[in-house]
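Sorry, explain these tokens?

___
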Amino acid sequence: MVVRYQLAGQDLGGVRFAISPLNELVLSLHAWRDPGRYPLHLPWIREMWRLRDRLAADLLLELVNDDLWTPDFLTPRPWSPLTPLEDELAVLRRTASEVVDRDLRLLHGPGGLPAALRGAGVLDRIVDALTGYWELCFAPHWPRMRALLEGDVTYRGREIAQNGLADMFAGLADRVRLVGDTVEIFPRSHLHYTRPANGCLTLVPSMWTTSAAAPIGPDEPPMIIYRARGLGTLWERQPLPAPGALAGLIGAHRAGLLIQLATPASSTELAVRLGVTATAVNQHLRALRAAGLLVSARHGRSVLYRRSDLADRLVGNAVGGAQ
């Protein structure tokens, strides 16, 4: 089975990235159905299950079927690089009732809808349940989640600039490739359709997919949800190892930060990853940037840092000399 998005002419320049809090919220329900598929998230999953009695768990669980599908209306294509959840939920509440009913019935098949999804006001009940879920289980952790997703987007942008679209698509997942002017996705489900991209294909990094996914319905806007990089760093504090020679030159903390910044990251992400304050990280980042060892660029509401060419050579020499 394969989903194909046909790119033509200006479509090649219409490939864009976006981050969706709503998508992440809904797709995280996969972990309720099959925690074993998400070992990197086990610290968060354990916390979530302790809070289950404070959530509308019966309804939330019915938004994912045994094949780990979710309704398309709950995972719409993001319309901006990072849309606030409140705006996404406001749009969600305006979804036509016939679309809600169609997608829920497609999700659950011929056996009919479960009791939690029947009756009047089902959309309002779904949005209320998702809002409560966000406030309890997501909001405390969203800054670190968002920082990881933003770091992935920055990495993909650099990959396009350095190696081209084909290499970038090949790096998204082993089930995605660009062949000529057609992007092919090989989902684990039985999806099979071909459609034009119509000027915009949106790529959405996610913490909750094991490979890559596309909308169930061929009429939905073109979108690929793919596994974000760096999930192993999300929940655990990391040490700051650095070669002795480099640490002796610029200090252990700054040398460790240079090692971490082989891929772009924000000060918030680094602080969470390392278990220190953002103020402490920012002091070191400013010093490294002033010395020409870091470059920075604003991405949405965050400033992302990466090593400069000079720092790449410095780290490479230090690591090579330590071996």
User: Anything to note?
Assistant: The first strand starts at residue 3 and ends at 6. Residues 2 and 186 are 5 Å apart (CA to CA). DSSP finds 14 helices and eleven strands in the chain.
